[in-house]
Amino acid sequence: MTPELNLSLPEAPRPRARPGMLQWLTFLLVAAVLVLLLLEQNGAPSGDKAGSPQEVERLKALATDLERRTLYPQAERVWDEYMTVANLTPEEAARTLYRRGKCLKEGGQYAEAARRLMEVETSTIPREEKHKSRQLLLECLAGLGKQDVRDSVARAFATRGEETGTALARIGSDTITKEELRAEITDSLEQALKLQGAPLTPSELSLKATEMAETQLSNPESARAALLQAISSRILYRKGLERGFADDAAMLEATSRFRRNFIAHRVVESELESAMKNLGTTDLANHYEAHKERFVEKPGAEFSYANFPSLSNAEAALDRLRDDSSAQGEELQKAAGMAVAGQPVPEIGPSAEITVHLLALGEGELSDRPIEHDGSFYIFRIDKKRHKRQLSLEEAESLVKADLATLKRKDAIDSLQAQLSQEFHVEILDENLLEQGAPAQAAPPAHAAPATPVKTSNTKPSPEQ
Questions:
Q1: Rounded distance, CA 174 to CA 277, Å?
Q2: Which alpha helices (H) appear in 160-219, and where do they start and end?
Q3: How many C-beta atoms lie closer than 10 Å to residue 401's C-beta?
Q4: What letter would DSSP give residue 177?
Q5: pLDDT (tens digit per residue) in 204-216
Q6: What is the CB-side half-sphere exposure of residue 287 using CA atoms within 13 A?
Q7: Is the pTM of this model over 0.70?
Q8: Where in the chain is the domain with CATH 1.25.40.10?
Q9: What are the residue ranges of CATH 3.10.50.40 in the chain?
Q10: CA dihedral 138, 139, 145, 151 (to 10 degrees)
Q11: DSSP E strands: which ranges in 288-361?
């Protein structure tokens, strides 16, 4: 049987539909997502994670400037952005977190500041910097009213192995270390040197105080006395905490006053440091030539002496010395030093009468009479006289530097005062406190303390003021 022939035509292939706009957009979106995923997987930096060096420096400078202008909330936000775009080392990140915490604390955001400072606690930064961060954290906890937590954290900090150092004493759970004692002695000596008017830069003062502290610690008696004083201070501090003195009005006012004065003092110290660093050999030589009369060696006298409890004993000894010159070595002892006008008498102390008496005697002469001082009667013999003479520049270099530094300090303070008087608006509201004929808005007098002037009004000044 013959099969039927299929004479129908084959179907034409169906035309392919062209992709529409929606399909193209979907494809491009998927491709972009895949590219971003690949870049992230390969560690390529994106615009949100890393910025150009110029952008990083711009943010850092902006944040620092905002801090200087006391715009702390704005500064903290810029520091946050800086951390996002900058490629920081762990140590740099910790320092930036500290600055963010400080800005938050100054802005009154104690809880958020404490969180940032706790992040600093887990980092590895130098001990001095971590100590500052811990102090700020304790202030934040106190500001939150969590005194119990604050005291507990403070004790934990004090007893950690990293902070204990060489333990010298322990009061309850608190430890006094050799490092803490050295720091306290150094600070006390540095303040004493400043009160004496030592013509040194702040860094030189610190170095001198450190050397003196090491000498004091090397003496067992001096070190023990300093340790006992530190123990007494810690005990009184703990008792004050128990009595609630840490948060009363007097403490808050004193803390605020200290902070204000200390910050102002640091501004002055930084200006003085810059001024005194610029002293060169030419400056010293010119100052020496212009004021030679100031740099002379004063007359002096090396002497031997003896003291007696009564006038009669002193007169009898003086008679023996006049009659028998060979007995002078047995009766008198040589003083370790030279009597100079305006200075304490060596081994005796300040006495203008004894100084005048010694300088009036000739070399080899004995006292013509006993001199009474501090309940005793003294007789003297002059061993050697020193006459007034002009010092060379080499001999007087330290004196010239001290004298010139005094002038530089005064110039630096006057310059700072003038600059700040122009920068900050000052208005004296009490007319009774105005100088005769002076306007209400005026710069402080030249002799005023060189601290940052403030607006003396009852309204709170803006940060720009």
A1: 41
A2: 161-164, 178-195, 202-218
A3: 19
A4: E
A5: 778 888 889 888 8
A6: 21
A7: no
A8: 53-164
A9: 296-390
A10: 30
A11: 296-297, 300-308, 333-340
